[in-house]
Amino acid sequence: MPFLITIVFLALLSSASTTSSAPYTPTDYILLNSGASSNTMSDDDGRHWVADADDLYSNTSSFSSIASYLEPSVTQVPYMTARIFHGQFTYKFPVSSGPKFLRLYFYPNEYPGLDISASFFSVTANNYTLMSNFSAYLVSSASPPQAFIVKEFVITVHDQQMLDVTFAPSPNSFAFINGIEVASMPANLYTGQTFGSVHLLDTNYFFELKNTTALETAYRLNVGGNDILKTDDSGMFRTWNQDSEYIFGAAFGVMPYQPNTTIKYTKATPVYMAPEVVYETARTMGPTASINLNYNLTWLFTVDPGFYYLVRLHFCETSLQYINQRVFDIFINNHTAEEAMDVIALSGGNGIPVYKDYVVWVPQSVNDLWVALHPQTRGKPEFYDAVLNGLEIFKLSKWDGSLAAPNPPPETAPLTQKHSKKKGTFFIQKRVILGATLSSIVPMVLIFVFWLRKHLLRRTEALNRRKVSPTLCKHISLADILTATNDFDNALIVGRGGFGNVYRGCIPGVEHEVAVKRLNSKSHQGENEFWAEIEMLSQLRYINLVSLIGYCNENREMILVYDYMVNGTLRDHLYNNDNIPLPWKQRLRICIGAARGLTYLHSGAVQRIIHRDVKTTNILLDETWVAKVSDFGLSKTGPVLMENVPITTMVKGTFGYMDPEYYRRLQLTEKSDVYSFGVVLFEVLCARPAVDTRLNEEQIGLAGWALKCVENETPEQIVDPYLQGTIAAECLRVYVEIAKNCLHDVGVERPKMRDVLGMLEFALQLQETAETNQTVIGDGDTIDRPHTIDEVV
Ligand SMILES: *[C@@H]1O[C@H](CO)[C@@H](O)[C@H](O)[C@H]1NC(C)=O
Ligand SMILES: *[C@@H]1O[C@H](CO)[C@@H](O)[C@H](O)[C@H]1NC(C)=O
Ligand SMILES: *[C@@H]1O[C@H](CO)[C@@H](O)[C@H](O)[C@H]1NC(C)=O
Ligand SMILES: *[C@@H]1O[C@H](CO)[C@@H](O)[C@H](O)[C@H]1NC(C)=O
Ligand SMILES: *[C@@H]1O[C@H](CO)[C@@H](O)[C@H](O)[C@H]1NC(C)=O
Ligand SMILES: *[C@@H]1O[C@H](CO)[C@@H](O)[C@H](O)[C@H]1NC(C)=O
Ligand SMILES: *[C@@H]1O[C@H](CO)[C@@H](O)[C@H](O)[C@H]1NC(C)=O
């Protein structure tokens, strides 16, 4: 029977004398030296720890223990003493509400009478699973070995709550802890940020980082600088490490510490954001433009797969003064996170710090997280260079509140190295890529670039030999493409996307105009998606789908050629443009066409296809206003038999349209498309974007706002003013009902696309009936507006 023991800590406040001048003073600050019996313990930083005195625990299944020896790099406080648990045990920390750092200190060493390698346990805090069946021993002996382990979490304590930290040994095992630290932090420092401030990579939109998400710090780096001690942080006792171990390939441009620079903190980047020294030091690419153009300044991190990560990049331009002096692109795991980053333009001047947050999904098969910078030359900046000052990476808790990851596999000979462990590191699982010294760097860049080029060439040759069913889809020569697009003339661009640009043009031997989609080699849409799209599209021929005419992949170009849609995207005819707004019946017919296209994808033809990126810009209109669903680059296929069985996949798609269930649970079904289509339906009715950050908060997201109005039975409030008085009441009622059902929070409750189609056809019928009964309305496609009929809203 497991023991269930709880200890409440009162009056545990302690303080560190060294921090009185720090920009931020935690309101709650607790340092608990587990297993210690004396209250007067200071660590090497001068922070005072309190003992979790034994008498409190006399009735529990826990006991204190003292490590058999301390390695030279390990400090006595808090590592020498430990508390050992043979049953479940909860510490309750009475703290104020708000976000807290929780830091757990483990020293997996020899304790008398215990085999530390047999210790497996779970730790939960306020219902977040921080670790599960965790072995400090396995983690510390994985490569590179660490003497001790510090885990840092960010947990928001809500009103009326305490911070509960529970240790639960795995069966026949024991748990231990050497020290616990709790420190409050300013609200909204990491979580609970205002909606719209965090970019979910791979989409155009945002990620809501709520305060119900718990974070685990994975990395915190003072890029280009030295380690920063906890006591030199801006008051929250965070550790900042130097970045040299994470640099991949070459990096020699370290901007020196500049004593003259004063860091001008702002309201957006307050003084506690990061200590000055983070902003005073930086890494740049180096002085030689020709070299910089040929490599990416890259950092490589090992992360646990299957989680979202928050990547915060800190910038401060201390050596340049003006806009367009140093402009660069930012890539995270091959996604373009930022194009044309200009620190001065963003911050407003020299010495002003700024930061940018990105959220990236790391799928199951991936252990790496890359951050890469590359000079952006398009605007002809003065220097072809890039700069970064600081970086933080956090793992985000899953929808079930878990942050736990499996233990690393046992090393082959961990015990023999026991005494030669390197200095304990703040974060687990560092990986040293290249121990580059400054003098070896230039040749390394060249070798690296050379290797990459050879590698790429070989790949491309192999791909060129791939075959696509020739009858369905023809190969078009690059020469013809260049003729058609006037050498990719910018004036011919009709669309831009994450994948690259779309040009219009005429291909010799093809009667009508074509759309040439030139895939950006930098985009996430790699060769695999390219071939997937060709193979899929060439099999699909349907009136409501865009037809692929041909493709080209010469000279490392990846190009798809489609029929050109004269009337552009559906969005072009809804808002933010000069087109005449479409009348209601035409909008309905377009929705019906798009619904047919999606129904065909979901249940038709050869395979079950989920579009994954349904939005008004992916619904195109031909010269007769027939709707054509486009952009299958993100599609995923599966056998029809598996209808509604989730495909677990990495999140792609566009925020604002994205099925909440999909990004919460990463389960993709046709119902995710149905959700997005529901957003499209409201967009068509309201003629406003799916996400509009200029509006006040409750109106930002169309889906939420529209549902609210429908709930309050005031749908007229959101109808496009241009349509007022032209929609038959019955038709509107049915239409709104369909859209609402599509947006149901739970996928299985949403209608199938086939049913959506049927209902839309019914709505059109209702409109037509209303119009024939009321002769005044006429066609509805004319500009005459009826105002006299009570059947009309
Ligand atoms: C331990 O048990 C004794 C007797 O059962 C009880 O009086 C005492 O309050 C307990 N102490 C704690 C800390 O629970
Ligand atoms: C968490 O966020 C909610 C809504 O965003 C807010 O009302 C609440 O005060 C926050 N709680 C804390 C403890 O910060
Ligand atoms: C944890 O979850 C349980 C059950 O859902 C709930 O009763 C309890 O209040 C939660 N505790 C905290 C600290 O959130
Ligand atoms: C805990 O992990 C160890 C090794 O990683 C494994 O052998 C053991 O079966 C796990 N126990 C549980 C309860 O998951
Ligand atoms: C510091 O400022 C002084 C006066 O403004 C200047 O002469 C000196 O060159 C500056 N030093 C550096 C390292 O920029
Ligand atoms: C990024 O792209 C490269 C080359 O295509 C590939 O080898 C690598 O695995 C990709 N990384 C990620 C995280 O997708
Ligand atoms: C830089 O990284 C991006 C994204 O992974 C990649 O597409 C590009 O080819 C890289 N550039 C160089 C020169 O390595």
TrEMBL record:
PROSITE patterns: PROTEIN_KINASE_ATP, PROTEIN_KINASE_DOM, PROTEIN_KINASE_ST
Membrane topology: Single-pass type I membrane protein
Signal peptide: 1-21
Gene3D superfamilies in the record: Galactose-binding lectin (2.60.120.430), Phosphorylase Kinase, domain 1 (3.30.200.20), Transferase(Phosphotransferase) domain 1 (1.10.510.10)
Cellular location(s): Membrane
Keywords (A to Z) from UniProt: ATP-binding, Glycoprotein, Kinase, Membrane, Nucleotide-binding, Serine/threonine-protein kinase, Signal, Transferase, Transmembrane, Transmembrane helix
Transmembrane segment boundaries: 432-452
InterPro entries: ANXUR1/2-like, Kinase-like_dom_sf, Malectin-like_Carb-bd_dom, Prot_kinase_dom, Protein_kinase_ATP_BS, Ser-Thr/Tyr_kinase_cat_dom, Ser/Thr_kinase_AS
Residues of the Protein kinase domain: 488-763
CDD domains the record matches: STKc_IRAK
Matching SMART domains: S_TKc (SM00220)
Residues binding ATP, per UniProt: K517
Short name of any one Pfam family annotated for the protein: PK_Tyr_Ser-Thr
Organism superkingdom: Eukaryota
Keyword Disulfide bond: no
Protein name: Protein kinase domain-containing protein
Native organism: Hibiscus sabdariffa
Lineage: Eukaryota, Viridiplantae, Streptophyta, Embryophyta, Tracheophyta
